[in-house]
Amino acid sequence: MAKTQGTQHAGKRQGALKKLSVLIPVVMLPLGAWLGYRTFADKSMADIWEALLGIPSLSLALAVGCAAASYLCLTLFDTMGVRYVGHKLPYRQTALTSFISLGIGHTVGVAVLSSGTLRYRLYSGFGLSATEVGKVVLFCGLTVGLGLLGLAGIALLWRPDINLGSFALAPMAARGVGALCLLLVAAYVLLAWRRDKPFSIRGHAFEMPDVKTAAGQVLIGTMNFAFVASTLHHLLAGAVPYSETVTSYVLANITGLVSHVPGGIGVLEYVISSLVTKGNVVGALIAFRILYFLVPLILAITLLIATELFRLRKG
């Protein structure tokens, strides 16, 4: 009896913490707005417009291509995740779900309430259960982490003498951090190869993917972030080496994730502008926000409305 009551109390505490966690992005959003203001406080609208117009047309076109390639990689996250839970949906369905959920979720933030809820709304119509959708969300989130680690490890081993202005890291330390990142990625693939029994998380069993899927997560995850960093790199028109762009973006992205600010608004811009001091940084950051966040958001909302209208007509 006492054990049952303790379990109920624990469940209530977890439920309360889950509800409170939703408020974190709301509380942190003013911080992101303040950091964004700090980043562009000394710039007038004329300065910002001039900075945007200063991006070469070819660089802008290449950035658009890299952003599109990143979202293509993200659709493969969902494709692998759906197959991981035992379903084989047509690619158009996983691609649609991925783009809508992430196109909106990247800006709104709170993955459980945005991309997670949208994935459930769409995937449930394609025959997936709530538990299976939860596993797909976890699978995709894990792929994001593996991609960040993979790209950070490669960049730090490739250019351990990286110079990011206010962020100083000795070459030996950079090599150590890079090696650790790649070791963690390798450990995940090794675990997928050797682990037969599922993990239990909050009463739900999660099996490790097969080794080919795990390797695919690492490859596609790393490619995704390489394309995102390339988007920013092209907008900077090659003012800094690609390795420096990669490292600054990875650090900014991690900071944005830890801060829980929706879409990393303000945080991403503040960190990158602090680390990258060469080139048309203001124009690149604003164009990056438009290309990688605002345009996909508008397209995703449009597709979501069209999808819901189609369902209403069909139903």
Extract low-pLDDT stretches.
1-39
User: Sheet bearing the most strands, described?
Assistant: 2 strands, antiparallel
| Secondary structure category | mainly alpha
- Cα-based radius of gyration, to the nearest Å: 21 Å
Terminus-to-terminus distance: 48 Å
Index terms:
single chain, 315 residues, mainly alpha, 2 strands, flat
Written description of the protein model:
The chain is mainly alpha-helical. It has one domain (31-39, 46-314). The protein is 77% helix and 2% strand. The protein has 12 helices and 2 strands. It has helices at 2-21, 24-40, 45-53, 57-84, 91-108, 115-125, 130-158, 171-194, 211-235, 242-259, 267-275, 281-314; strands spanning 199-201, 204-206. A hairpin with a 2-residue loop joins strand 1 and strand 2. Helix 2 crosses helix 11, helix 7 packs across helix 9 (211-235) and helix 9 crosses helix 12 (281-314). The longest helix has 34 residues, at 281-314. The N and C termini lie far apart (48 Å). Mean pLDDT is 79; it is low at 1-39.
Please describe the topology of this protein.
Layout: H1 2-21, H2 24-40, H3 45-53, H4 57-84, H5 91-108, H6 115-125, H7 130-158, H8 171-194, E1 199-201, E2 204-206, H9 211-235, H10 242-259, H11 267-275, H12 281-314
Antiparallel strand pairs: 1-2
Helix pairs in contact: 2-11, 3-12, 4-5, 4-7, 4-9, 5-6, 5-12, 6-7, 7-8, 7-9, 7-10, 8-9, 9-10, 9-12, 10-11
